[in-house]
Each structure stands twice: as C-alpha cells, then as structure tokens.
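Researcher: I'd like a structural prediction for the single chain below. Treat it as a standalone chain; there are no partners to consider.
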Amino acid sequence: MGSSYPVENGASLNRIYKINLNTNETTEVTSFGVKHFKIINEKLYYVKEEDGLLYASKPDGSGGRPVSDRQAANWYDEVGGSVYYTEADAAGGYRLYKADPAGADTLVVKDTLESVQIVKDRIVCKLAAGGDYGIKVLDVSGALEVAVADQAAHLFAYEDAIVFVSAEDQSVKRLK
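Model: Treating it as a single chain, here is the predicted structure.
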C-alpha cells in the first residue's frame, strides 16, 4: 500500500501498488484508497475506505467485487473455500461473519470476540472476557468443534497447535 509524497490536497492516499523489485517500477493496482489488504490463494482481498466493505479481485486489481455485505474490521481470511471476516461492534469487540455470495452474510459466532486466527483449516476465536467461554474452535463450515470454558489471557495458533495462557492462573495449556 502506498501514498504519494509529499501529501498534498487531492493526493492518492492508501492505494495498492505493485512494485517490480528488479526495476523499481511501480504499477497502480487500485485507483481508490483501502484500509488494508492481503493476498490469499491468488486473490487480492482489500477493505475499501469508501464503504468499509471487503472486496476480492485478481492480483492485478481487475474484476473487483464486494465479498461482504457488512463493514469488515481488522480480520478476514479464506478457509475451506469460504470467506470469513470480522465486523466491529459498539463495545469495541468483533463479530465473526461468513460471506455468502448468493445472499446475506451469516453471523457465525454470537459471542463478542477479541481475536481470530487460523490453524490447519480451523478457525480459532478468542472470546471477550466475562462470557461463558474463553475460546471457540470452528471447522471450515463455521460449525463449532470445541468450546473451552477457561478464559484466555493470550492465545497462540501455530502449525497444528493451539496454545493459550489461562487468565485465571497464568498456566500454559495446549489444545490438540
């Protein structure tokens, strides 16, 4: 992502550029501002500043289309061929949605979330403190696999391991 420098009125802020590292040549990929972006499975995903929706396109920026029907927050990913994303709620937490290209997006986890991670095609959700559960693990369809009652102070997902620090006694625990 890049912006013109020095910043002036009407400047091109937060656009995506492709940079050839051998020639230092830049090519504009988007002609509009984005909040953030990433490439997943040969697709460019980005959140447009204009409307806050999540979009997908070819890596060169062509064929861009909205993926979400809600404003996407800081996390989105493709899991098992489906796109999942978070939306910020009024309390400062997040809600997890599954994008549905044929209709309205589906709320997957009703609890307020602090964070979401992926480990081996499983969606690992750290829930906000004070609820009945601290962690929920979902399969690729968004169905609940495991719910952990312990509140998690920290959550780490790496390769096929899910490790968390218990908020109660600071012990380290591993889910398999």
